[in-house]
Amino acid sequence: MPVLNVAFIGSEELARKLAKKGDVRDIESYVHKEIVDGQVRILSLLRPLRHPERLRPLLSVLNVAKAGVVEISEVDAALGEVMVAFGAAGICNGHAIISPKEGRWIDADQVKMILKQAGLDSWTLHETPPDEHSLRENLLSNLDSGEPNDPLIIPIDQHFNVKGVGLVAIGYVQAGAITKHDEILVLPANESGIARSLQVMDDDVEQSIIGDRVGVAIRNLREEALHRGCIITHPNADGLTRHDSSIFTLQKAPFQKRELAAGDVVHAAIDLQFQVGRVQSIEGDVITVDWEQPLWVQKRETAPVMIAQLDAGNMRIMGVASSIAPA
Hints:
Shape: globular
Structural class: mainly beta
Strand order of the largest sheet: 2-3-4-1-5-6-7
Low-confidence stretches: none
CATH class of the largest domain: Alpha Beta
Number of helices: 5
Number of strands: 22
Strand content: over 45%
CATH superfamily of the largest domain: P-loop containing nucleotide triphosphate hydrolases
Radius of gyration: 20 Å
CATH topology of the largest domain: Rossmann fold
Helix content: 10-25%
């Protein structure tokens, strides 16, 4: 069933108008499910909690989202970081909604300038909150079922044992499709198992496609092979490249004045991975980073690797690793 994952930065009040509240971790989810002409359409809002205190939930949401909604209650450094992060993630379908706190005023021209500088020119700016029905419909117009023949990639964000079912891993299908009884491979453990059953939105399904948040019940796999940020794929799928070290040029983020230097600690965010690394060398524009744990990078250009520095003050997004390759 087609699902649109939307990175949502805004109030719980607006989120509840658009969808029904679901589970809560470091990310809140809100789901709207409808049937149009016999076809199921699902809008999934993903609302990271505790930003700006924590950066990882925001980047995790951006790893899986295909559209964005930002409700602007004030213009500050946190808003700037959010907009830059959306731009770095390549999310060009989005809505910025001006909704100032009571007694406050926000300059729409200033917001337009921020959107432009962050690379979000294509976003729609609402100078007053839009009708939730039209906003929901506009978002759902971006639904794309993807290409099921692409190599399977499912980053996992949680796992557990269910009585009578066994080991279950939950994650978002980023590419390809998984079918019941498929043989699967879990990286980085490099261990195989069988998808004994699949569940999407509490429904048992025979196949899960791009955008789905799927629960995969797995047979013949050690629980120790699973952790947050591990990836399920098919054996011999050839959709990912392992990086113990990476070489890349940094496509620097707007507003970022800081320069990387040899010895700096950085984080890479892609497919729910949040890997720490250390800059080994910088030669001209070329940066080499050694990772503490292997970083798995999609071969598709549509999956950017965002680089961040957690001690970089108000603007922790350094930019995007361009032309990244194993060192």
